[in-house]
Amino acid sequence: MKLLHTIILLLLTCAVFAQDYHYSQQYATPMLLNPSMTGYSSCNGRISAQYRNQWASVSDAFQTTSAAYEHKTLQENQFINGFAGVGLALFNDQSGSGYLRQTSVTLSAAYHFI
Fold first, then answer.
1. At 39, phi and psi to the nearest 5?
2. 90 in a domain, yes or no?
């Protein structure tokens, strides 16, 4: 019973983050939009990079840069019915004069049942 309470306590104290509402190129990196999409593609690996410079004529423009790599692993075999995906994403968003800036490094993993 103590183990069950410990597991529940650990699950309740973990922070979970999903998408950032400023990110407008979610079609190019599905892993940043929805972490469960990690490794879900027709190829074994996917590399993506985006750069956005919004309102470039303004002196303090909004800039967003991101890069990601995800890899399909544990492919289907006689013991496993599905596959897993692991990924790494780097994200930097600077809004205006630099007072509002977000930089993150994200590790993601997902298992896909088929």
1. 80, 0
2. yes
Residue 9 lies in a domain: no
Report residue 76 as tokens: 């289907």
Q: 14 lies in a domain?
A: no
- The domain total for the chain is 1
- Rounded to whole angstroms, the Cα distance separating 15 from 37 reads 19
Task: Decide: helix, strand or coil at residue 1.
Answer: coil
Give exposure, 13-27, as e/b (b: 16+ Cβ within 10 Å): eeeeeeebeebeeee
Helix and strand numbers (H, E) in the chain are 2, 4
Model confidence, pTM: 0.66
3-class secondary-structure state, position 69: strand
- Euclidean distance between CA atoms 37 and 49, whole angstroms: 17
pLDDT tens by residue, 3-14: 888 887 777 766
Q: Which structural domain, as residue segments, surrounds residue 74?
A: 25-113
